Sequence to fold (353 residues):
Amino acid sequence: MDDYVASARSHWGPRFTANGVPAADFDRVMADLQSWDDWCATWSAAASVHENLGMEALEEGRLRSAGAHLSTAAVVYHFAKFVYVRDLAQMRAAHQAAVRCLDAALPHLDPPGERLEMPFEGSTMYGILRKPDRPSPHPTVICVPGLDSTKEELRATEQLFLERGLATFSVDGPGQGEAEYDLPIRADWEVPGRAFVDALIARDDIDADRIGVWGVSLGGYYAPRFASGDDRIKACVSLCGPYTFGENWDVLPALTRETFTVRSRSKDEDDARALALTLTMNGRTSSLRCPTLVVAGKKDRLIPWQQAERLHREVDGSDFLLLEDGNHGCANVLAAHRYRTADWMAARLKGPR
Fold:
């Protein structure tokens, strides 16, 4: 396989299956995939199998099965496009398929989901709200993806919060998913974050006093940056996020640098590097006053764990979970952090009011 396919497998392999790609699909696709040029089309073909099964189940009235098939199709289509910026038309087609499949799945998930639209700076941001089968108003976790993840990838994360009585609101912010075509990556995530909170508190089924935020990878920067500028956030989790994204620019995989360059609307890598340096918690940590949990893996090859440790040191009273064998996102050691994180968030948002 070429260097780009090898890089995708080595850096992100465990993440695929942790977030919903069937292990058999991963093994079958990766066994034959040799060229990055074929990445998007090959994974899209794998996704279409699940989409067809989902549509068949819908036609036959097997709605729970339809939801399962279509949500699986959505995440497989997502990984067809996730860092495939070589052919933007092909990438966008795969992304549109991911959105289409998740939208079709939403009424049939357990619990179901609702698509929300939020006007923002002349464009629109989108999110998926899911609520536990419990009396409202619900405490809620805003789930923030990273550079190459989107709301279509977050079903497994949502489920753990939902099982603990927390609603989830998985979003695409600037530079992410459905927002990436009109809204470039930006550092001041307290601004789009405010729009997400405003959308939630306008509803009568969400508890405005019990809203948390969780973010992974670059979302692990967006989440604390967001919380540092909005005191309506009552708890924050940063999973493998950078303190300053541009500090390790030269050691990032080429796929990551190219993706950031495209989604930030930078004219070249030098321009992108300069922008990446503005994505920083420097000068912001004293404003992050809500309970905060910082999670990192010592074997993270994208974001050095010392960046997470710095965030922990500078945020008074924060908790720190450092996993010796954790990779980027710690998808290879799920049992060591996912349940603990969900328990931590539930304790902060469901305690005495």
